[in-house]
Structure formats: C-alpha cells, structure tokens
Fold:
Amino acid sequence: MVSRTENDSSKLNTLIVEDNKDDFLLLVDYIEASGLEIEAKCVDTESDLVSALDQPWDIVFSDYSMPNMNGARALEIVRRLDQDVPFVFVSGTIGEEAVVNAIKSGAQDYVMKSDMSRLRHIMDRELREANNRREQRDAENTLKKLSQAIRQSADSVFITDASGHFEYVNPAFELLTGYELTDVKGDTPSCLKTEHSDPEQFKLLWDTLLRGETYKGMLINRRKDGSEFYEEKVISPVKNDLGDITHFVSTGRDVTARMVAEQSWRRMRSVLEATPDLVAIFRPSGEMVYLNASGFQLLGVSQQVATQDLVYSAILPEKLVRQLDTEIIPLVMQQDSWSGESQIERPSAQNQMVPVSLVVLKHNEQQGNQLYFSLVARDISERIRFESELQHQANHDSLTSLPNRYFLLDRLKSSIASARRRHTLVAVLFLDLDGFKRVNDNLGHLVGDEMLRQVADRLRHCLRPADTIARLGGDEFTVVVEDLINSVDIISIISKFYRVFQSPIAVGTQEFFVTFSTGVAIYPQDGSNETDLLRHADMAMYRAKSLGSNQYQFYAPEMDYRGREILRMDTELRYAIENDELCLYYQPQVDAKTRQLMGVEALIRWRSPARGLVSPAEFVPLLESSGMILQVGHWVIEKACEQYNRFREAGFPGIRVSANVSAVQFRDSGFLEQVTACVQAAQIPPDMLELEITENIVMQDPERVSNILFELNKLGVRMAIDDFGTGYSSLVYLKRFPLHTLKIDRSFICDVTESVSDATIVEASISLAHKLGLDVVAEGVETDAQCQFLSNIDCNYIQGFWFSKPMPEDEIISFLGKTF
Structure:
C-alpha cells in the first residue's frame, strides 16, 4: 500500500462505497473543496468492492445503510484485504451503537452527511497514522527477517555488550561450540580461547575493534568438550547515534575441514615437490592448478611463472596435448583413470625427447561434479635403455655386436615383403672366411675373436645403412642387400668386399690377409622366402669354396657365368684407366639448314687389347657402380676442352664440343670445381663447352640440380638436356633452369617420316624448345628424308649416321669446314 504524507501533492486514491450517485459526487466535491485532489471510484456491491481492492487505496469512505450491501459488511471485506488503509463511515442514518461496533471492527471514524466539517481533519489524521502503521509494520517485518536470518544462519553469531559480555548467541553458535546461551550469558568470549591461541592475534583484534573498525581473521577456539576448531571470524562494533560503541556482533565460520585439508595438502605438496616424477593437476578447461618442481624442470618452464597462469596445452608437447584431448581425457571421463606411455620434450637438453610412463586420474567433488584431473609422468629413459640393451643382446652377436640369426630372419622377411611391393631385388650373400680354423688352432681363440671383430667392422662399413650384415656363428657372415634394380650391382658389392680386405688385419703383432668364399642368392628367382634364400646362398657358398679360396658363386648357373664375366671386366677396366686404353670418339652436329659442321659430341670408347673396341653400354654401368666414373668423367671433360683448342688451332674456333655427364659425376661435391678447373686450364671460351645431362638427373634432386646449373651458367658453360622424351621430366624445370639445348632422342627420330605420332611429338618438342629459347639437336638421323623433315620444322642441328658415325680425333679434323 502506498504511504502518503501531508506534503504529498499527488492525487489521493479514494474508494467510496455508496449506492447514491449524488451523495458520491457531493462527497467528492466536498473533499476537493477542502484543497485535496483525489482520484475517486464508486462501488456499491461486494463483487465490485473485492475487485476494486486489487489496487492500492489511500482511504476508503463508506455509507452505512445501502440496499445491496451494508457498511459493516464493507468494513469486514476491506479489513480482510487491507489492514492499514483508513476506513471512515460517511452516513446520514448511522446510530451510536453502530458507530461503537464499527470502531471496534476496525473503522477509524465516522462523519454524518449532514455535517462534514470534521472530514478534512479526520482525513489528515488517518492518512498520517496509516503511514505510521505501515512503517512500523515494515520495521517489525525487517526485524523479524533479520532475527530469522541470524537464527537460521549456518554461521556462528553472537552479540556482546560494549564490555564484551555475551547477550545473544544463535543456534549455529551453540551447535559449533557446544555452549548454550545460559552457559555463556554474562561471560566473555575468552571462554573459547585455547592454549594455542596467539596473544598477539587477540591484541590485534581488540585494537581493531576499539578503533571502531571491523576485524577479520582466523582464530583457534575451543568447544565446550575441549576439542579445538578453526574459525574464520568477522567482528564488527555497533554504534549509537552519538558514535559510541554499544555492542559487538561476531560472525564465525567453522573452517576446520578446510584447514585440515590445507595442512594435508601442504604435507602432500612437500612429498610431491621432493619426487622426481612430474606431477600436474589441471581443470577440465586446461588451466593448471598445480605443477611440482620436477614438472617445471622437465618441461623447461621458469618457476617464476605462476601456476594459475599456465595451461597444459602451452607447456606440454603438441603430440601429448593431442593425445590427451583426443584419446586420454575421453577415456578418463568414462573409466576415471588411464595409464600408458608417451614422450615429453626436454628443452634444456637440445630438445631431447624423454620417454615417460603416464597416469591420468579424474577427481570428483563429493556431489559427483567433475573437479579436476591429475597427471603423473615418470621418466623411464633408464628402463627403456635397459630394455633396449636386453633386446639388443637377444638379437645381436655378443662378440661382434652384429645382428644374429633371429634379427637377420626378421630383417630378411621385411626386405622380401618390401621388394615384392616395389618390384625390386634382394640379394643374400653368405660369406665364410678361408682358413679361419688355422688361426684359432694355432694362435688361440682370443686372437681369432679379435680377428672376427675387425672383419665385422670392415664388412659393416662396406654397406649402406639400409643393408644388413649378421654373424650366424663361427666364421660365417650373412649380408642382405635390398632395393636392387639390377643383379650387376651385386658384383660391385662383392668387389668392394675384396678391396677392403686387400690390406691385412693386425691383431697385436700378427698380420692376417683375409679372404672368404661367397655364395649369392637373389630374390625372387632363387627363392620366395627367407629360408630358401639362406639355404641357396649357403649352397652357393660351398660351391664357391670348392673352387678355391677367395671365390664367389651365384646360386643360379646362368648368373654364375655373367657374374664372373662382370667381375673380370671390372678388373680389366681398372687396368684400362691406368694403361690409357680409354679414348674419345666424336660425332658431328650439323646445322639443319646450311648442313655445315657446328659442333661435335665427345663419346667415350674402350680399346681393350683382349676385347677390341668395347661399347660404352657395356662398361659405363660398371664405371658408375664402382665409382670409377668420377675419375673417368673428369678425364672426359678435360679431353673435350683440349679438343676444342685443337679445333681452334686448325682455324675453326666456332666448333662447340659436347660431353656427357653421368648422374654419379653430377652429384659429386667436387663437380663444379672440376669443370671450372678444366675450362680455366684449357683457356677456352666457356660457351664452347656444352655438358649434357639426362632428364632423370634433373628430376632426382631439382633444388640441388638448380643450384649447380646456375653456377655453371654463371661460369658460361652451356647445358643440354639429353635423350629428351625418354625419361620423366616436368616442363616446369625446362622453363626454370638455365638450359641452352634440348636433344631429342633417336627413338622419336627413326620413324619420324612414317609415324604421324612421332612427327607430332618431334614438331611439338621443337616448337616448345624454341619458345623457351632453347636450341634443338635431333639425334639418330639416318636418312635424307629425316634431314629434310627436321629442316622444314626448324630443327637447329642434326646428329646421326646419315652424316657420320662417331670417329676418333684424327679423323674428325678432316671434317672441319665440310658441308654435308
């Protein structure tokens, strides 16, 4: 209900219970004539009255005698719905007895319709008293609520007078301390003190209160039964209007459980800080709650950083974070725990990955709500190392540290599976030392063991990282060579074995020349599984041993002959280099339009005393597999530069000399220096030397090739792509690399006048090359029709038997200046 004061200028909400309209209007006019503005409503039935009382009214006037409802009933309804609103009878027929009953029933006063001179006075008085009644009721309600709040509060509350004597304690105080009001009334809170109470703390308490300020702190108090408890206290002074302290109000909360938990946590924390394991506690959102000292150290996080400022996704390795988010946490949510292994990066040790065992637990509140996760990570490097040592001992020979039979069988099985997928070869070489028994018998097992260790070291260093060498026992070694393309490569490996044992092995003061018998079996032709291959290699080794020491034997008879032949050729080639049996032949390159000689290609040949003139197709692969190509390739470039000088001395300085470069030679780290040295030593114009490389060389390592090509281009040496169209290349590299010439392979030229497709390819290649600024040389031209076709489509140069086969140096001189 809205209260009203005497100075309130708003309109007075007035409800009038009256059946006579004229009397209603007369009453309204009289009130307004007295100086009050009103908002009046007239009702004359019970239902209308009940409905009108849904809204607040400042005062209610009612006639006493009405046909539809009498005034006593109206008073009863109003008082049932509103205790405070002033109710005044305005009637012309009310008697003295009725007035008395009305006043007893809750009416404030009455006025006769014939004399309303008292009406304004009554209104002012009753409006004022109604407002007072409402304020008093509000105050009583507020006090009641405060009293209930204190009584029902879970916190301990007591009130003392100014001298500190108890006047009131609430039920929570009684429950907490065991003291009832009757026990402590008139006493002081010192009855709660214990021997562990800090005098300084109580001095601070009273100093604060007597300054008129509120004290907040933690006290150790004692219950009635003598037990102690921790209480979080807030004590405030209560002052009167003069500012004098009249009472003190204390509220307290039992925090014993929290303090005990904190003490337990501090004890636990001291243990966690001492453990070498990483211990972390984090919330589901990822925020860290705790990280121990070992965790800070292992993760490389400064301990100056506050734990609450960290999130596990920022300090744990990315791989572990993904594992936590996608695998571990979802499982922990279901199963409450997870354990396994992972890795943590140790920044302080050159980003070393540390293997760890992990345990992740979920912790819930008592109500079952998810609270946090804990993670414990233990460095298991030492365990892993020990397990690795055990694994190594189980799979390796203790004498030589080479793999044993079990390891070999597993590796061979994997190699066969890989070769089956990649359509490559796997070679198994069975090696047996010649005459080893004599060493053991005559010099003892210690010398024999040392000899075997040195043999193992030499064999190990002959192989690629992907290959495997194992000791099966005694003086037998087995080698698995995988990812072979051609069986000829096996010969180069055997040759490497022979070469590495050309120097003796020294054991103490003794020196031994080691030879061995070797048997070779090849997957897939000699066996489809590891057992067959080992057995066949063993058989081949015994056949080799039967031929004498230092022999090898292939399991397949047809390969046996070829293997010996290749090995003999390898030996002869080494002598050929020493005996100057290698030479260069030159094939002319002719201008397609003028038919004039513009250049020559230098082609290597071998004049063997035993074999005659050997095709490069037979011996160049041996040069490459043996590494001799580096020496020979350097010699070819050197001779090509010298040949240009002979052309220049003969009066033909415009004849360019081309030389082929092998993949092995091009990849050699000293290749650029060799080319530079050759050009500078011969003092030739660099652009008179053209080096030819195949498409496959370009594609093997484009970035490195690009660097070399640009260096050669800066030197001024021309570069040509040889056998264009036969390899795998990207046109992007033709555009990107500094190339000068494109050589179309003879396979496209031989049928160019009969095959529309070949003609189209050749014409498109020439057009493309010209648009890229490249010259074009067509190889393998053997007819005049081919010459004419190539000339018509603007091919720059032609090379082939139609003009001349490759010829030695003294014959090429006679072609200088010739028009074909």
User: Anything to note?
Assistant: The longest helix spans residues 119-152. The chain is about 45% helix and 25% strand. Residues 207 and 434 are 103 Å apart (CA to CA).
